Amino acid sequence: xxxxxxxxxxxxxxxxxxxxxxxxxxxxxxxxxxxxxxxxxxxxxxxxxxxxxxxxxxxxxxxxxxxxxxxxxxxxxxxxxxxxxxxxxxxxxxxxxxxxxxxxxxxxxxxxxxxxxxxxxxxxxxxxxxxxxxxxxxxxxxxxxxxxxxxxxxx
Length: 155
Fold this sequence. Notes:
Layout lengths: L1 E5 L8 E5 L9 E5 L12 E4 L5 E7 L2 E8 L4 E7 L7 E8 L5 E7 L2 E7 L10 E4 L9 E4 L5 E4 L1
Antiparallel strand pairs: 1-2, 2-3, 4-5, 5-6, 6-7, 8-9, 9-10, 10-11, 12-13
C-alpha cells in the first residue's frame, strides 16, 4: 500500500509518504517536504507504479512541483528532483513512468501546461515543454504512454 498526502498540524503542511504491506497495522513513513502555511494550499499529488517494481511520486510545495522515484522494499528514494527553471504558481503535478525507466513530470502553471522528462537517474532528459491550455489552466493536464512507448500529453 502506498499513500502520499499533505499533513495539517498547526501551521505545518508537510508532505508524507507511507509505504508498506496491505495487511500491516502500521506503515513506515517518510517526510518528503516541509512547509509552514496557515491555510490549505489546495495541493495535488500523484503516485504510479513502474514496470521495475518501484513507483513514481509527484507533489507540490510553496509553488514548486517535485518528482521522485521510490523503492518500496528499501523504503527510500532512488532520486528526487524539482521542476527546472523558475516558475510561478506551479500546481497539480503528475508523474508518469515510461517503459525505459524514464519519468515524465507534468504540471499546471498559470494558464499553461508544462512538462519535463527525466531519465532513469532523475536527470532532465530534454528541454521543458509548454503549451497554453484551452481551459486557461483551470483543469489538470494529463499524460499517458502510447502503444509505441512515447508519452502523450493532454491539456
